[in-house]
Write the structure tokens for this entry.
Amino acid sequence: MNNHLTMRSGNPALQASTFKKHLASSVESKMTISGTVNKTGISLLLVIISAGYAWGNPAMHVLMLPAGIFGFILALATVFKPTIGHITVPAYAVAQGILLGVISMYFNALYPGIVVQAVFLTFGTLGALLLAYKSGLIAATENFKLGIVAATGGIAILYFINFIMGFFGSGIGIISDNSNMGILFSGFVVVIAALNLVLDFDFIEEGAEMGAPKYMEWYGAFGLLVTLIWLYLEILRLLAKLNSRR
Amino acid sequence: MDNPAIYLWIPIIIVSFLSIIKMISKGGSEGKPWIRIEKVEDNE
């Protein structure tokens, strides 16, 4: 039954001990894959609606920074208290939607049509990775998980250093420039973000198999949402780099 | 390079294609046929 003996995920929300801390008792209802899929769908719908609203209303643009900070606080609240996921995850989806809507509008103003391409590529990647996971083409083995977690950690450290360097008017070139190395780096980050989806699928399947409580469905949806938002932003960045060379 | 997004679809299509081939070759995850035609009884 359990072929996910030890769980690893590059996603900070999805850690090995997460389900063990929240195992359901025999009387309460348990986490299911279909329930998690439904909650992921609801969260994605909230992201799309709020992103569309923010895109079409210039007044919402001042909310970009507050939405980002609020989203970060809600993400921390979800990680540390998954029992309130039914409140924090939809609110996180709305906050991230506002942020994505404003970011997308700016990217689209620079390179018209880029956002539609990025959205289709994100969902295309999700579909392809879901097929690959279900078919067994990509299996979440321990070495695979270790590799993805290490690569994701490396990228996170690089982004953090870049963030700190930003305060001194500097930065790591390959993250934002459109040189060959910059595009290769962005391509690598997109691949790692996409492969994190496999870890998320594995995490959700593991939760359902272990009989985690119902509220963990919101947590699984949250993990998938975090990865999808990251993947979308990285695809958007890669497309912007490629378009800037035309 | 007219539309760079086209190049990003190539790995997605390859992964999807290989997954479908793998699914077909092992007959689905539970070994069940994708399409099943059931016999209709007279009283149905």
